[in-house]
Amino acid sequence: MTALFALATSLLWGLADFGGGLLTRRAPALTVVVVSQCIAAVVLGVVVIATGAWSEAGGRLWFAVAAGAVGPVAMLSFYKALALGPMGVVSPLGSLGVAVPVAVGLLVGERPGLLQVAGVVVAVAGVVLAGGPQLRGAPVQRQAVLLTLLAAFGFGAVMALIAEASTTVTGLFLALFVQRMTNIAVGGTALYVSVRRGGRALPEEGGIGVVRAALPALAFVGLADVAANGTYSIAAQHGPVTVAAVLASLYPVVTALAARSVLGERMRGVQAAGAGLALLGTVLLATG
């Protein structure tokens, strides 16, 4: 069950990242984040009311609040790092956030077997290579590296926090709703500050019409992100966190494959090798 839900997490996060990446070509990144999370919050609010999940409110929800506060900071740091580039270095480094939940799992006493250790090493190496690391070329700015490491830590922290936010399915609905509301508060504040400083909340061309036309895609991105957080929480609760975290972190492979299928982007040799290693690591983790 752990492997199944963790792999579902990778699929959902990978598709959400791909969709979000396409949307940020047409609209400001902060607007994409805030609008997609607002749509997800509305859907989750209905689910919470329908299931009576409010009765599950408790101290664990602070983990959801923390995850919701960290998530937008990590995403914005990652976007800024990508802007500074080179993307061929920044993108693979962002996947190193898997070290956070893996470390948490080890600290709480998890001891993976030999095959699982090998699977972790092989899968992480595959994820990094699947990002197409740029080994030569333009120098990397120190600020880009620091922002990427901050983003990676944030992504890993969200994984660790959301896994602790609930112990039941209905509690998970409430935790995800609280996380989304915190995302909106943090992202909305950042958007307001950006606009006050001269930034744009709407695309230069098309304005609100572009955002309105993109609502179905924005809904998909927001709901896929919610579903990914949910499946990861279930995976981490029903099996070793070290296994769940690594399998859930295969999403860059999904994003690369989606770009190849939809946009016709050609995978470099190092990316193809990385995808193969990620698959091998998945097999080792699942059988270990």
Automatic annotation (TrEMBL):
Keyword Transmembrane among UniProt keywords: yes
Span of the signal peptide: none
Keyword line: Membrane, Transmembrane, Transmembrane helix
Domain EamA: 3-130, 144-286
Transmembrane segments: 32-54, 61-79, 113-132, 144-163, 169-193, 214-235, 241-263
Family assignment from sequence similarity: Belongs to the EamA transporter family.
PANTHER family: ACYL-MALONYL CONDENSING ENZYME-RELATED, SOLUTE CARRIER FAMILY 35 MEMBER G2-RELATED
Listed name of the protein: EamA family transporter
Organism encoding this protein: Streptomyces atroolivaceus
Organism classification: Bacteria, Bacillati, Actinomycetota, Actinomycetes, Kitasatosporales
